[in-house]
Amino acid sequence: MQPTYIVYADVLFLTNFFLDYGILWATAKFGHIATSHLRLFLGALLGALYGVLMVYPQTIFLYAVSVKILFSLLIVAVSFPRLTVRKFLQATAYFYVISFAMAGAVLGGSSFLAHNSFFFQRLDIKTTGLLFGAAMALFLGYWGFGHLKRHWQRTQFRVSLEIMIEKKSLMVEALIDTGNELRDPLSQKPVIIVEYQALRNILPADFRQWYEKYGAEDVTKVMEHSGGAVWTTKVRMVPFNSIGKHHGILLGYKPDLVTIFGQQKTCTKDVIICLYHKPLSTSGGYRAVLNPEVFEAAA
């Protein structure tokens, strides 16, 4: 006699919803993809509705591999709208990788603890599955994939930068620093810290005059003496904290273009160049420090 299985559609729906939400949330964290809780909710809702259709025999055709792929693309599109084609494909890849990782955690963890823990023996597979899915989502979103991504995106820690300002450009060597998380507080654009002397020759003459006078003392005075010059629209004040220096301010400058020569050549305008009045390297091996998220801006 064949065993009878009872599937509760409401339980299946809720289980799929929470797991899908966790996958989408971790995808957003891993890929630094702008979205909202409403978008994640709608994506998870779509995934849960698709998952619950399996209880109806007449919808079996929806579970062909090609249809599953189409639904996953639709879920990503709903959760992360207005992406470029490249960013959409990246988000889809993150979505699949995280899905597989969470599925392995759910199945493996549930099976192990259900047989080896008195507490988990009292919970059904759906409850333990949710627990392990949530734990894996938190791990991937906050630490695991963030750590892997920093090493996966770069096989070296030095790159060459071509910085263009006022239609003039120059090359500098940059250190990729995972500890540099500086962003412009207004635009949230990532920051590249560059020695002032390295950029001096391509900066406006009157800007140089006031920076050399006040840059090491009080960068706010540079703006006070600007006299409404055209370049003031490109200047930013970027606060920072460091060892022995709290509530400091770096003077930022919006470049025309930055080209990164790493594993591949990429260009971006979505960065801020922050000037530093001292050498960044005692050996002179590099003259700029790169926020790793610049790679995202250049993607």
From TrEMBL:
**What is one term from the GO cellular component aspect held by the record?**
plasma membrane
GO biological process, any: proteolysis
Enzyme class, spelled out: hydrolase
Recall the GO molecular function terms of this protein's record: aspartic-type endopeptidase activity
**Documented EC number(s):** 3.4.23.-
Q: Active-site residues? A: D177
Q: Where in the cell is it found?
A: Cell membrane
Question: InterPro entries this protein is in?
Answer: SpoIIGA
Which Pfam families does the entry link to?
Peptidase_U4 (PF03419)
What are the alphabetically sorted keywords of the record? Aspartyl protease, Cell membrane, Hydrolase, Membrane, Protease, Sporulation, Transmembrane, Transmembrane helix
Q: Which residues cross the membrane?
A: 6-26, 38-56, 62-81, 93-113, 125-145
Provide the function of this protein. Answer: Probable aspartic protease that is responsible for the proteolytic cleavage of the RNA polymerase sigma E factor (SigE/spoIIGB) to yield the active peptide in the mother cell during sporulation. Responds to a signal from the forespore that is triggered by the extracellular signal protein SpoIIR.
The entry assigns this protein to a family as follows: Belongs to the peptidase U4 family.
> Know the name of this protein?
Sporulation sigma-E factor-processing peptidase
Species: Formimonas warabiya
